[in-house]
């Protein structure tokens, strides 16, 4: 019979979740924030930092009730008699309910946002779930039936809510429309427990009722309701609140409120049917419970706009006011509300009448705060950016940044020139001192603070720096960069009694001195070699660590006797004070283990290229493939973390020599059969590594060379015997450089 079939209660009351929804409740009193602002010492025209608190809780002597218009938000509800539920409720009933709600003196009615449908909101865990601290919720609907003879209204409540107040509401329906015969025997109450809003609000301890005013499908019902709608609305407001509406009408508005620094400005108006022509007008600041916090005598001004809005009120339009006062300390950080009236005495102790304002405002607390937004440190140089202010005292004295170490000992104090920070002002709009609060400080610390922690305190001092006006510890502790000590053994290769080591060793504090590479037998821990070397420039290291890292590289070849071969070596680099290698200033041990195979002397008649396999290993860090005929070199690199890719191709016993070069800056190897090219590349700074294998004179197996135009350094060239691998790399963007040499 009724569209409420759609309101099935699908949630168990025991698992209801509560969520806060904004802009759901519409207060019938709207604050006009565009009221006129007279001139004063502060330009309040530029200040709009307070928004009225729509969740204002009226003083405790009031009760809060909510009225809901059924359907809406695209859902018309039931239709008939030339209208529908949503339209009738909002265009015909709602204005009358609002009219009489505004005349309540001791109670307060809020209206659920008529642009929304509370049932739909509740389905999405809003709506009824967001209604807090209300005495009751009353929802208005029109019933519907296929039969045009169905007539009368009723009130739906939970079986536990059979109360006199709910019967009274049903009797208002009975008085002006009549009761639905199905519920007349129960005083007009229909007992239901399957409606969502009803069950949610009952679980939350709020009385809820749904008023079916009439059958929209019955024109006679609708005609009765319309002809009595004014009286129906008035009595519904009275029965919901329990307050009889009398001719005593009150109205008020805070048109403008702003607070900045130590002053606040309030302007507005108030009216009452009990207004007197005599008495001293006062504005009172009260808390949520109605307790007085402050009072101020006010000068009343004429408000023609208010007089036009309330022509039936005596003295209407004569109670405008505008007040600018200092903010008492006891109001800081509080939510404040207002009432006004005329007192029979000059002190404001005995009010002839009083009018409450329905909006509350929050006053900011006194603020003393700051923040370090950014900390930068390179070696001894420090730069910090941030802000700080004291809401009352920032305009006094000279601002400084104090720098302290871990032991809270002052290292430095830096005089600051403060800058505007509009972001800080936006966050603290009620304090003008928040604008000029930014700073950017640069300073250096001594070497003794490298590797240590710093913290910062902002202070305003008197001009003689002898007294602190205020201080604000700023957030966090910050590390000063320690002295850099770093190293790398980039390459270690061994061939025919020669161990070639290349890498770098940098110590920021002691990069000058005598440099040595030390080889220690891993098995016996005995030092086998200690070789002095001259540092060479490594552009990659200077890019990383600056000019002080010049000449920190090494590229050293160490001759190993037969008894020094067949060992695994630990390698370290040292920087010393003297040329004998004593008094070590810096020492760096490399993680790389260097394997040196035992070299078997070759038969003088045996060709150096007399081998049958070329090995390929891969460095996943640099992307380079290295080719070597030396199984020992291949194994050594594999031990260092290179990937074993097995035999690249077979080699001839003799043939065209293939030369290898090494770039100590990029770590790249280059192979060429052209001796002139070999010499020219060496002149460009590459290290010669001699003949590493031979190309087959019979050109049996072509070896293809490819170039990666996107690579920079190691891994830019690749050699392969596999045509499929070549073709795949070409598809990926590599350039085919054709046949470089031949395998057997």
From TrEMBL:
Residues 1-26 form the signal peptide. GO terms for cellular component: outer membrane-bounded periplasmic space. Keywords: Signal. Residues 138-241 form the MurNAc-LAA domain. Pfam families: Amidase_3, DUF5648. GO terms for molecular function: N-acetylmuramoyl-L-alanine amidase activity. GO terms for biological process: peptidoglycan catabolic process. InterPro entries: DUF5648, MurNAc-LAA_cat, N-acetylmuramoyl_amidase_3. This is MurNAc-LAA domain-containing protein. It comes from Enterococcus cecorum.
